[in-house]
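Sanity check. The docking grid for zinc ion depends on where the pocket ends up, so I'm generating a full predicted complex first rather than guessing from homology. Inputs follow.
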Amino acid sequence: MKLEFDETQSLYNSGSQSARSWTEAWVCAWAYCPHCGNAKMSQFPNNSPLADFLCPSCSEEFELKSQKSKFGTKVADGAYKTKCERLAASNNPNLLLMNYDLKTLSVINLFIVPKHFFVREIIEERKPLAATARRAGWVGSNILLGRVPDSGKIHIVQNAVVRPKELVLEEWQKTLFLRNESPETRGWLLDVMNCVESLGKSEFTLDQVYAFERHLGELYPGNQNVKPKIRQQLQYLRDRGFIEFVSRGSYRLRK
Ligand SMILES: [Zn+2]
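Predicted complex below; grid placement will be based on this.
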């Protein structure tokens, strides 16, 4: 995998339009499918409004967003209504996020948020565009990247280093169990996963997760049973092999 963009492309034209063409050409040339490992992805023929790339082998779809600066806690995305409607659809695209450097014209970070990490809770409705805007009244969305657990940000390239493909495919497989759950059920699961991962420890206790009771209560106002909910999610994550039980009240994240 070569991280530089193709130099034959409009090198001195650094508008967002040309950045779009470099980054898309780069994905076509170098990115592999994280789902089945196929060496190439193909571009959708005519500016499909919902996805940019397709794996010709497993039909998994991908949407690419690229920018110069690192992605923060929110990423602006397409129409809010369309995003919400597509949550449960089988062809809801996975999100490919790329940061690039304009000096070296190369990829710095490329990571994927698998589609099964998309739940209603991470899609934020934006204010309608002002009456003076070209698309007045249009309502866009933000993806709340900060609410996505680390296991839902799978790096192919990290700080200009290409990560081993086997590792990427393995990380991808590890959370596929989420696809069996409805977006409604996944909301709690992902929030609890995020709490567990944010502890930054391979072993943790139930009490440490209970410490997020207030935080989770704020995310789900009206829910009076946060602790039982936490236990239920941990049980589920254990049954799916994401975490393992060590002893009473203590758990371990599976490698
Ligand atoms: Zn594939």
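Relevant for the grid: The CA atoms of residues 17 and 23 lie 10 Å apart.
Also worth noting: The chain is about 30% helix and 25% strand.
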